[in-house]
Specification:
Blueprint: H1 2-16, E1 19-26, H2 27-31, E2 40-47, E3 62-68, E4 71-77, H3 78-86, H4 90-95, E5 101-104, H5 108-119, H6 122-138, E6 146-147, H7 148-167, H8 185-198, E7 206-207, H9 211-227, H10 239-248
Parallel strand pairs: 2-4
Antiparallel strand pairs: 1-2, 1-5, 3-4, 6-7
Helix pairs in contact: 5-10, 6-7, 6-9, 7-8, 7-9
Length: 255
């Protein structure tokens, strides 16, 4: 599949007249809890030929393709990526941690990683993760039968929010690295059992609700909602990102 995805990325470059600077796996496969039939969520950052940036019409800033039902490709043009990075959009901070890299050209990603601590906003990231955790808890987790994967959508995001509250830094992408935040042996045993079930179950498989897990998620949502107020809003300095943008387009400016 790795080779298939790389070949598809080459086809996208040719058909869209772009250059993909970085492509990686996202979603459950990158998070560490895929099902046997999980699809592949390929995410990438690309640039257009330089002359397109000199047009009065801005170039396309997003490419979204479903190659097959198992292959989902989504790419952001470099300007869009840097704008969202400056606003601490967590997707990019997750992509750069992926263990599965399909393509990497130039030193763009390395330079972006160097800038990450300057632009990562604990407040914005906590709100992002809290939103997903809350919506999942109040919606799918209240059903009489719960999809196993929904537990991990809620657990990964609330644990990521907890990580930021405790460490004031970018949380790890892999779910297993978040597990040390769970100090309750009983809860940890239940989560590890759910993880074992998740890696063997099909995507839509359901189980009876786990009240002990529900209690943990509900409590931590409330804790993080209170803790987020201690973090100030970050006003980004756009010039380093402007410099990286110009450098990546080949204007030869120092970053």
């Amino acid at each position: 599949m790795h080779t298939t995805i790389q070949n598809e990325l080459t086809k996208i470059e040719e058909s869209q007249d772009i250059e993909i600077l970085y492509a990686c796996e996202s979603g459950s496969r990158a998070w560490g809890f895929p099902s046997p039939d999980s699809d592949y969520d390929v995410r990438f950052i690309y640039r257009h030929p330089r002359e397109k940036y000199l047009s009065i019409h801005p170039p396309e800033d997003n490419i979204n393709l479903f190659i097959t039902k198992d292959l989902d490709f989504n790419g952001w043009e470099i300007r869009k990526a840097l704008l969202l990075f400056g606003k601490s959009n967590v997707s990019l901070y997750e992509w750069m941690q992926s263990d599965t890299v399909y393509q990497q050209k130039t030193d763009f990603l390395d330079l972006l990683k160097e800038l990450a601590p300057q632009y990562f906003s604990p407040r914005a990231a906590i709100h992002h993760y809290l939103g997903i955790a809350r919506n999942t808890f109040e919606g799918p987790l209240q059903e009489p039968e719960v999809k196993i994967k929904k537990y991990f959508y809620a657990l990964r995001t609330i644990l990521s929010a907890c990580w930021i509250v405790q460490h004031q830094e970018i949380p790890p992408l892999q779910f297993q690295k978040l597990l040390p935040l769970i100090n309750d042996p009983k809860l940890l045993a239940i989560v590890e059992d759910l993880l074992s079930q998740k890696t063997q179950a099909k995507e839509g498989e359901t189980i009876a609700p786990e009240p002990y897990v529900h209690q943990f998620i509900e409590v931590e949502i409330k804790n993080c909602e209170q803790a987020v107020n201690q973090f100030e809003k970050i006003i980004p300095d756009w010039e380093p990102l402007n410099a990286l943008f110009r450098e990546t387009l080949g204007y030869g400016l120092e970053v």
